[in-house]
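quick one: flavin mononucleotide bound model?
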Amino acid sequence: MGLMLTTAGESHGVAMTAMLIGLPAGLVLDVGAIDAMLTRRQGGYGRGGRMTIEEDRVEVEAGLIRGKTLGSPLLLRVRNRDHRIDTAPEVTRPRPGHADLAGMMKYGTRDAREVLERASARETAARVAAGAVAAQFLLTFGVEVLGFVRALGPIRVGTVSEEPGELRRLRDASPFFSPDPAADEEMRAAVDAARAAGDTLGGVFEVRAFGVPPGLGTCASHDARLDARLAAAVMSIPAVKGVEIGLGFEAAARRGSEVHDPIVPGTGRPRRASNRAGGIEGGITNGEPVIVRGAMKPLSTLMRGLPTVDARTGAVATGATERSDVTAVPAASVVGEAVVSLILADALLAKTGGDSLAEVRRNLEAHLRAAEALFPPAPPAGSPSP
Ligand SMILES: Cc1cc2nc3c(=O)[nH]c(=O)nc-3n(C[C@H](O)[C@H](O)[C@H](O)COP(=O)(O)O)c2cc1C
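yep, here:
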């Protein structure tokens, strides 16, 4: 068994909670690093309103002894400062682009409050807390997962560093969590213009995982293919409407010779001359960095409101405005990093098994040795082929 995650909590309830089952014993948890990721989820240029009310902090309520995991379920709680769920106003004017109308019909209520409290992206605080734990687990095996913004509205990031340290440094220095300082000013202008117009912006985030061992995932079962699982995880982030792996949709327009990555000799095992596949072939990691992107639609709540129908009166109305951010693509990139970390940690554990960190390490090292033993060293250049 790998990792299992359940979250609970409403946007204005007492807390958002995550239960993570399947972590091995012996992982020293850095609670400060979980908080840092929660803070990152609340940031990014283009937000406002509630993000200044909430200062997310995690409380670890089960699964630890003296700061180390026990191998038992880990229970994480992020309190909601704003917890007025029972007194929050009814919402009878369903907002286009939200779960409101579909959920009213599903649950049989005229009050979309009963739907939006759980549909709210506040839930992603719980997933980020759990994802931060998965990221720490992966880091102990040299796997580093980095989420960043690739495009904001029409503004695209130019170059992306292939080097994780540099990529992290640039991302953390940007108010948009983008790795391209040249794009920041254009993004700022786009956000300011959208705000002035009472409008919102979407964009694209990317998650790259460096140091991923080959052989995670499977080609044997359709629903366990790693690309399928990553796609589902990224698509499960509210407002994500498209997912790409590697070249993604761009591959459809190219010839095969411009898509598939040549296999070349390397130390230990063969490498790839390029990584257009995004590190996954046949649902299995091939040892190159895993690259996943999510396309986020513009936020549904617009300051100027959108046409709707009031469920109490049947009259034409304007959609309720709970609060108004211009964009949350930077925040979504953090959620992307979290969900990709959770899937990769699960796939690693599915490959290695192991009740303790030491056992996972032994099994992973044995797997990597066996994979490398498959390939004899490349003959010196110029030697005749057999
Ligand atoms: C981190 C994050 C923050 C979000 N913040 C907002 C927001 O402030 N306003 C809004 O209208 N939608 C926001 N959303 C998107 C909505 O939650 C989402 O569009 C809505 O629940 C409907 O789900 P769907 O777009 O996946 O169909 C946010 C999404 C994410 C990932």
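The radius of gyration is 22 Å.
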